[in-house]
Every structure is written in structure tokens, then in C-alpha cells.
Amino acid sequence: MAQKTNAARQLDQMKISYELGEYTIDESDLSAGAVAAKIGVPLKQVYKTLVARGDKTGVMLACIPGDKELDLKALATVSGNKKAEVVPLKEVQPLTGYIRGGVSPLGLKKKYPIFLEEAALQHDTISISAGVRGCQIILNPQDLLTAVKATCGNISKTEAT
After folding, report:
1. Would you call 104 helix, strand, or coil by DSSP?
2. Which of 9, 10, 33, 8 is nearest to 23 (CA)?
3. Alpha helix (H) ranges present in 40-131?
4. Contact at 8 Å (CB) between 60 and 78?
5. Are the beta carbons of 144 and 45 closer than 8 angstroms?
6. In the chain, which residues have pLDDT < 70?
7. pTM score above 0.90
8. Starting at the edge strand that comes first in sequence, how are the strands of the sheet with 135-139 ordered?
9. Start-to-end Cα distance in the chain
């Protein structure tokens, strides 16, 4: 039986259905690509959660597909900021309670605005971190939107190669 995380408990309380996908952690590769391969979900359906800070709103989270990178200008526009930047890694755990590779938009220590790449709605299910490395939550993207009261927008761009 998979471990219950705060993220999973939040979904349970809201009576939102999901599946847990557990995998073996490789500390040297915490990429979305590695996670996708291990849980058998296409990379474009594995969503990574990044912590950013806007000049007006402060801390916010952005959930984007594993095969994309965060478009900071688009995030700033969608969130009502003039500019946005990704927070330094050392701030992620104090802000969210989660470590790199295990940041979830669910079960956060504090409420922050959450922005979801609108492409998520094209899929029946997407995968997000369950709040720990080695465990993903697979759920309907509309359920995620409801659970975290996220704002949808075009906030990602194709990764530079």
C-alpha cells in the first residue's frame, strides 16, 4: 500500500478520486522524464510544480508539463505581475514544506496562488507529485483545478535544447 501524503489526504477529504504511482528514486536524476518512464505515463502528462515569486503577488506555484519549461513572462502576465522569477532552491522547502523533486500543488503548508498550464485540460489524467520523491498522484486535471482553485493559462514553452 502506497504511503498517504498530505497531498493524498487533501484529495481524500474532498472525495476526489486519484491513483498513486510509486517508483524507485534515483537521486542523480529527479527529472520529469525519469518519473514518466518509471510510472509509465507520457512525459507531456507528468506535471512538475515550480515555485516562483511575482513582484506584486509574491510566492506562487506553477504546474507545467514535464516536456516544457516555465515561461516566466507568461506566468507574470497570467498572475497579474510585471515580472516573475523562480525562487532559489534553498527557499523551496521553507516555503512549501516540500523538497526538490517532491513539490506538490496539494497539501501545502501555506496557501499560495497556483497556476496550471492550460494544456493539462486536454488530457483525461495528469500526474503530479504526491509531496514526496518516489510517489506521483494521477488524477483528472479538472479535479486538480477544483482542489487547489488554480488558474489556467498558457504558462509554459518548449524547452530550449
Report:
1. coil
2. 33
3. 72-79, 89-96
4. no
5. no
6. 1-3, 159-161
7. yes
8. 19-22, 135-139, 126-129
9. 39
